[in-house]
Amino acid sequence: MRRRLGFGVWLAAGWIGLVLLAALLADFLPFARYDETLAGPPQSGPSAAHPFGTDGLGRDVLSRVVYGARVSLGVGLGAVLLGLGVGAPLGILAGYRRRATDAVIMAVNDVAQAFPALVFALAVVAFAGANLRNVLIVLGVLGVPSWVRLIRGATLSFAEREFVLAARVLGTRDRRILWREILPNVAVPAASYAFIGMAVVVVAEGSLAFLGLSVQAPTPTWGGLINEGRTLMETAPHVVLAPSVVMFLTVLSFNLVGDRLRALTDVREIGLEPVRAPAALPLPTPTHPVRDTLLQVEELRTHFVTPRGVVKAVDGVSFTLDRGRTLAIVGESGSGKSMLIRSVLGLLPGTSIRGGHVYLSGDDLTAYGPAEMRPVLGRRLGTVFQDPMTALNPVRTIGTQVMEPLRVHLRMSRRQARAEAVELLASVGIPDPVRMLRRYPHQLSGGMRQRVTIAMALSCRPDVLFADEPTTALDVTIQAQVLRLLHRLRAERDMAVVLVSHDLSVVAQWADEVIVMYAGKVVERGPAAEVFARPRMPYTESLLQAAPRLTDPVHHRLRVIPGRPPDLAHLPAGCAFHARCPYARERCELEPPPLSEDHHHPYACWYPRPGTTAEQDVRTTGADSRGR
Amino acid sequence: MAGSGTAHLRPDDEVLLRVEDLVVEFPAGRGRTVRAVSGVSFDLARGETLGIVGESGCGKSSAARALVQLPPPRSGSVRLDGLELTALRGEALRRTRRRLQMIFQDPISSLNPRRRVRDIVGEGPRVWQLPGDRVDEVLEAVGLDPATAAERRPHEFSGGQCQRISIARALILDPEVVICDEPVSALDVSVQAQILGLLEDLKDRYRLTLVFIAHDLAVVKNVSDRILVMYLGKVCELAPSADLISRPAHPYTRALIASIPGGGGLDLPPADTLISGEPPSPVDPPSGCRFRTRCPRAAPRCATEEPHIRQVGDDHWLACHFPVKE
Ligand code: SF4
Ligand code: SF4
One GO molecular-function annotation for this sequence (chain A) (predicted)? Predict the structure, then answer.
């Protein structure tokens, strides 16, 4: 996956290349030497012969800026290499060896970093003499502590990874592990920091030169040029302006390229936010009657336009849901199950296009803008996600977070909200809720955090609770507690629950109805008990037989579904499952099977399973394929 | 048990790997210690698969890493075919490492993103300077096409394929014991079935002895000959798989089974009557039986006296003062 660098970065890199090239080839460029006086009339503005004009002694400013780049960039490069050369080995050692080595290196490093850097530089240069070598060494040494810190951090983060552990288990020697496993991974952050370091050093050298503490005249440096030009500010501003602008652009470019390189290595998720102005016209939807039910989803579609093509994450899903019922959505990763509920909630990345309708008690939510959607999301639709930390703010107490929706949406007073929060926390089975109000999320276990997010989701008495893999991150015994809690609350509050899960046994136990998704489409739907006992669509059947069950005999061969789910940007013609389906025939490759008309238990398949008990099927397939 | 003891260990000449009184501890800051594994013993006969099951914090992964001495345990013994691994240092330890290999949970972070599959899988032979190139052979054995897979990098593969690459890397050194730490819990159901089947095939083909660690009892039962149940750094129960699931005697094992939807076909009381509350911190584990804070059968004796492992049936062992008899 190649991410785009962006136009600005190419421009910045181009500028750096240009300055570098000019500095290297300065001797061959067709202009006067930097120290040739009266190359033109003194203090003259830009002209064809002197594009940047001339200074007080009639020297060519362009030439001086270009030669100045030699010093500035030379010092920058040298100092960065020096810092890297000393800092990287120390950082790698500290990060990889840890313990005592780490403690000693980092203690010394912290002391070094506590030195006032510029004062130190001034003192040393003033004492040892202002020349290129001294400036370079001082700036290089000053950079070492930051290099140590950066490289140690990067090393640590990779040394923890399993591939390093695996290498050690293989018997790889430490030196080879550092060289082959860690170094290549640390190189990218190091490269990005090198650019930023260049910017820092160029500025620092400029400051020193401005104070006359860098390379001495007549050799020009950017800081020195700015200093010289200072006195001519009124009569010939270009003398100051030219080196300033060049230096500014160079520093900016280094920072830009460095930042962008770092962003490339950062793996961040796409932020989810309520759909803003639609990116394109919504997808067309056929007309349909609006039913008298709590939640009605009609032909919902969510597509993403990507460079690889249109990804049909959700492709024409319809269902209805009444109060007091639990609807489960099952499927494997990439089946579109999570995208489906995000689509219902309108929580999609800005790059998506949505089509179809979502009615909540008859109100069409797809017609709502973000501002109208916000109160609906807080009050009528509650959400619980897999990772409770995404819903909790780590720096605020549980109390403030549970009380917030009560105060904002229900306009309760502080006291009322507090009392209600205590009650809510008690209702989700949190012992000692009054004390809990003052605690922070990190002080709680995963199970307790998930209970808190459930309490928050329920605070405004939503009509529908959407739970996306609510217990996947929890331990089995805690999972059972949380699911039982959801079940109880559903009855107590007469709400509907939409439960997204990959775990078929969870779904079988807690859901009334189930939707099976494959490649963005519903492939089977019906009462949970019936779908699991008598699946009609082959994918559902395979999924059931692929999941191990406690009641299966030991070493029982699970059913294997060959191949992989199709690419959502290039769906095959016909049935999306045909390449993996053992019952596929010619028609399956040509015509996509529609969802059957049967309202009770529809399925999408040309050659459905007989609908006898899956139990028997499992046994026979199991016995056959074991074969040993 | 949450108890200790070694009564369940078999004679030395019958086993390939023998772990005795394993103790793993880490500093937890502010002078405190995480007691991750506290006196756990088990053994594996050649060709056997031992499943280790338990919830997060039970010490199963710490125990796995202590087996390969990464890091070495605080105390206890790990003997591979009579060779005491905890006594080995430096080069001698490195030489025995290849006899024990590991497969990890996270298929993505198990593979170096900057190396090609051929280099990742071929690393072992290169380190050991083994003659011949077996990369293609093992890639084929794990169901990958060497022609298309070997030159690519990990990010071009799905989670299940990455896990196959990890398995190939472990297999290429012809290890005797492979320790699988939650190898399928990050995978989809259908992919999980593929990997479980693959592990069973490879076990036959390469005559492997497996330690299979997972939190999902159904998965563990599917591949294991015997199952060891752990809770908070201690052993609870050990029995042949079918026996453990059909006749669980330890209160914690019963709670674990009852928490699984369907309850394993057993007629167990609802899970909330078999277990309550949350696991205590391994920094400050309860006295006596470590399960007592959540156990419905706990009695005063459980707080003062740690239960020891004893035999309750044919190769069925457990550590509890008041086990459930049926
Ligand atoms: S339509 Fe054909 S390929 Fe698709 S599930 Fe049915 S039998 Fe299989
Ligand atoms: S009955 Fe006592 S010894 Fe047995 S598990 Fe419960 S607390 Fe532990």
Answer: ATP binding
